[in-house]
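INSTRUCTION: Work out how this chain folds

Fields: amino acid sequence; protein backbone structure tokens

Chain under study, with its fold:
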Amino acid sequence: MNVVREDGWNMRDAVIVEAVRSPVGKRNGGLSGVHPAQLSAEVLNALVARAGVDPAVVEDVVWGCVSQVGEQTFDIARTAALTAGWPESVTGVTVDRQCGSSQQSVHFAAAGLVAGQYDVVVAGGVESMSRVPMGSAIGEATPFPPGFMERYGSFPNQGLGAEMIAEKWGFTREQLDEFSVESHAKAAAAREAGRFDDQITPITLPDGTVVGQDEGIRASSVDKLAGLKTAFKPDGVITAGNSSQISDGSAALLMTTSEKARELGLTPLARVHTAVLAGTDPVIMLTAPIPATAKALTKSGLSIDDIGAFEVNEAFAPVPLAWLAEAGADPKRLNPNGGAIALGHPLGGSGARLMTTLVHHMRDNGIRYGLQTMCEGGGQGNATILELL
């Protein structure tokens, strides 16, 4: 239902009526031959097909993408909608809030719905890191002018930020590797149990090959990971094994209001209950999920124990571990189906991927409240609380 204020005025809300994602492909894997706009189009068409709606009712596609260069430039949101064969009346806008780009797309879509600017909107995102490598948009330039460098004294590096978190919170290499092994184990168990089946749309390649499952999940052990070299500091603790995987993928959510959902005969899955942002030191970079979570809980009036599931992006193992140490959440509720260390992290598509996974997990397990948060370049973090309907 729409929210009703104490004075009786009926406020608009923002609800998710469908959520779908592609499998997450590993670098140079099954999805690497697919143009990112085409991959987006496949997900967009699966979204409206599952919802049973005419794409003509969609007013805008708000699409996250980080490396907006080459195949991912020229407003890939609009290109994706047109590639999908949707009416030319459906507009598109591309969002960059680094790793949280498509979670921010959900925030923008929800705000537009509540404000009355939209009645039906799609939020999501894409990244093909095989075809458009991370950092491609920088080229020979520097994004940080003298004023920034004078203030912070160094060029921010996310890997070194992860090392700083591990040092600050006292995490050992073994602790990080144990967390990573568990991420793979949870993801493997979810895949074997079919928990991803309803959220994934298989992608058929031009040669007829079907990519239907996440490609990054693998059996691992602390002993295997212990043999990997550190990636950023010779005496550090961050390796490829306890970091998120470079990936290709896309995800999308169909959003509307409760009133419009009834008009269209749609059943909402969840309501966007609370959406906030937080900013922290851009050099350590990856700690903003901690204040973002605290801010979301304060704003919502909920406690950490009211939340039945948490999706905290596993950019690097120290990120969710530091979040867990500060938030005081039940570890069993954190990333219950694995995270980006096992599934992969297709930058601009990850926020929508996490939210798709969260919505389906909440629905399948009758969980009333779920919270998602991600670390982002520039020392930022989104946090979103969903309420099951």
